[in-house]
Amino acid sequence: MSYQSILDQIHEEIAPTLPQGRIADYIPQLACVDERKFGMAICDVDGGYASVGDADERFSIQSISKVFTLTQAMRTADAQLWRRVGREPSGTAFNSLVQLEFENGIPRNPFINAGALVVTDIVLSHLGDAKAALREFARRLSGASDIDYDLRVADSEARLGYRNAALAYFLKSFGNLENHPDQVLDAYFHHCALSMSCAELARSFMYLARHGINSDGAVISSSQAKAINSLMLTSGTYDAVGAFAYSVGLPAKSGVGGGIVAVMPGQFSLCVWSPGLDGRGNSMAGSLALERFAALSGQSIF
To answer: The whole model's pTM is what?
Structure first.
């Protein structure tokens, strides 16, 4: 199969949709991104690679980083983790306070913001410097030694992240954070501000396509890789997971920076980036691009 010809066709088809959608301007540094940016990259288990557009330009990966922190937490505290975080779709907004109160401080899954804060707390407790740990992990997975945080984005989120702060203190009131909320928030805001390209993210997620194994060895067990892929399918695209599974049919994780990473276990890892978002916080052109990829390639888990 020629992935390059498929990506070229998608790039041509998707161009008219790029001005659509709304950039996540509630994070001021993200509001500066050109709405016409579009990149797409794929790596397969046989060593193949293809890309189009702005696939080598770095962007703020935002909630895509939650897959990395979840992986780190599962490596160090798998049993403890699932006593503190659920594994069900939320059906509500990713930053909902109401659901957290109704369910006594146990977030529905690790990809909504409350769940990611608990996962970050676990990483802090077990690895100490959660910011350095996540950065080095991303560098290992991608093979890019200069990956780093965009400190302007991290500062922007910290200054205006009132709802996330409310979630963190709410979790603490339920006894579901071990560390001080401000420490957890600082690590969380930096994680979301990690800057990577489509090419780097496609390489980084290959351990989920290879059943837990990266190019330099095992990252997690095959059963843990299966668990993360299943969570991406059921919870990875905010409260649009049903529609995404229906139209694309691949485990995926999106971020409000406009990136979406999708995985076909045993086959490939694919990343698309376009900053214009739909009403649920997923890249509008990116979602369409992945839908076209599934149709043109005939690849899905179903």
So the answer is: 0.95
